[in-house]
Design brief:
Layout (H helix, E strand, L loop, with lengths): L9 H6 L12 H27 L6 E2 L4 E2 L1 H18 L3 E7 L2 H8 L2 H17 L6 E6 L2 E7 L3 H16 L18 E6 L6 H10 L2
Antiparallel strand pairs: 1-2, 3-5, 3-6, 4-5
Helix pairs in contact: 4-5
Length: 208
């Protein structure tokens, strides 16, 4: 799409899924350059899939949920943060606090809350990219690392996840006949210059 297109504005095009908005008359060489760049980026992400999935092991993750442990989350965030600071790019840390998980355990039992937690983990992971990291930080809390992501884009992704989770019905066991709806509290922050991993995490948790 370019700026002469009557059907969509630049903002509408980006919101609809466009990655690049070219202004003025279309230059075939510029289009070709952007396409090659996007294809190269996508191939890089495909190449990341197997190495990233290989890091999911009983030592680093909750096998039943497919989410990383808090320890892995912190160590990985330190690595990503060092890379981001070296390259002068951005990352965003999101925390989804879902008190409904704890409430289900208190009302029913830990088996029911574990089922709900697994369902929520699958939903969250399914709405993220392969290079994004999803971890279980506490019984009712998920942490997400979004590398190479601007705050505006991360907020859009996070709000979409919150909206989907809060408007979905979750079924647990045969004994629990009613559908469960969850409440989600969201906090997210981008990294500040020279900010440590612990400082970024604490700043994000403090905003819940």
């Amino acid at each position: 799409l370019d700026s002469t297109t009557d059907s969509l504005s630049e903002a509408e095009a980006i919101k609809s899924g466009a990655t690049v908005f070219l202004s003025g008359e279309i230059n075939p060489e510029e289009v070709s350059m952007h396409v090659r760049m996007l294809v190269g980026r996508q191939r890089f992400k495909w190449n990341l899939r197997d190495p990233i999935l290989a890091t999911l092991s009983p030592e680093t993750c909750n096998v039943s949920e497919g989410t990383y442990s808090e320890e892995f989350f912190i160590s990985h965030l330190k690595r990503v943060l060092a890379t981001v600071q070296q390259r002068s790019t951005e990352l965003v840390v999101c925390v989804f606090d879902i008190p409904t998980i704890r409430e289900i355990r208190e009302r029913y039992d830990s088996a029911a809350s574990a089922i709900l937690s697994r369902q929520l983990a699958r939903w969250i992971k399914g709405l993220l990219r392969v290079e994004d990291t999803t971890a279980k930080l506490a019984e009712d809390r998920f942490g997400i690392i979004l590398p190479d992501t601007h705050m505006e884009d991360a907020r859009s992704v996070a709000n979409r996840i919150v909206g989907i989770l809060q408007h979905s019905d979750f079924r647990l066991t045969d004994e629990i006949t009613e559908a469960v709806q969850v409440k989600v509290n969201l906090s997210l922050n981008t990294n500040l210059p020279d900010e440590s991993c612990d400082e970024l995490i604490q700043r994000t948790l403090a905003q819940l």
